Amino acid sequence: DIQMTQSPSSLSASVGDRVTITCRASHSISGYLNWYQQKPGKAPKLLIYTASNLQSGVPSRFSGSGSGTDFTLTISSLQPEDFATYYCQQSYITPYTFGQGTKLEI
Amino acid sequence: QVQLQESGPGLVKPSETLSLTCTVSGGSLSSYYWNWIRQPPGKGLEWIAYIYYSGSTNYNPSLKSRVTISVDTSKNQFSLILSSVTAADTAIYYCARDLNWFELWGQGTLVTVSS
Predict the structure, then answer these.
(1) First vs last Cα of chain B: how many Å apart?
(2) Residue B104: per-residue pLDDT
(3) A32, A50 contact by CB (below 8 A)
(4) Buried-most residue among A58, B18, B42, B82 (CB within 10 A)?
(5) pLDDT tens-digit profile of B56-93?
């Protein structure tokens, strides 16, 4: 299985901050990397697909980059509604695997 | 718009079989992969399996011996069966539509394994 490792596991930030979350794959996954946001009691929501493509309806302050084994999710200016847990996920090969999550807190 | 809704028992006894159904409304099962994903309370996400609308399947090897996924296009539903459950199978179970990314999710259903 491809292991996905996110860093940091938790992050304290303030409204207006620029935040970067990193995801590393144990093997190259080309650009098959997706990012999700999950709020308490809710299903995950797709933010970014294939590393850098913004899902329809997602604010442009979210962006993704990377290829191979190293990927980043950047939020350019944190808004109150962005405080949540973020997961990366590889769709290069089954079994699809997720990172352990990054909890973004105030 | 297309919506997914999981249904099934919220409580299953150890060693018994968990059965869940995902109903797709507002759209067709055709031309998509349909997935089950689970999340133990307070923990991360685990992909379980997918099924293509035509019936081809793919399972997570960690669960493969206990999992069956099936599709009923006439009812616009797909289902999950997980046998011989233990407390470790307690989780929120989500169904999701797959375009090589999980772009549409159900709200999830909590299944607790307990006697």
Answers:
(1) 39
(2) 97
(3) yes
(4) B82
(5) 999 999 999 999 999 999 999 999 999 999 999 999 99
Neighbours of B105 (CB within 10 A): 22
Residues 34-53 of B with CB under 8 A from A: 44-47, 50
Q: What is the mean pLDDT of chain B?
A: 96
- Strands (E) located in A26-84: 33-38, 45-49, 53-54, 62-67, 70-75
Provide the 8-state DSSP code for A96: P
Query: Are residues A43 and B108, on separate chains, in Cβ contact within 8 Å?
Result: yes
What tokens were used for B66? Answer: 């206990």
CA–CA dist B91, B52 (Å, integer): 24
What's the average model confidence in pLDDT over A31-42? 97
Amino acid letter, residue A84: A
Residue ranges of A 20-49 with Cβ closer than 8 A to chain B: 32, 34, 36, 42-46, 49
Cα dihedral B74, B80, B58, A101 sign: positive
Q: Do B105 and A95 touch (CB under 8 A)?
A: no
Nearest CA in chain B to A95: B60
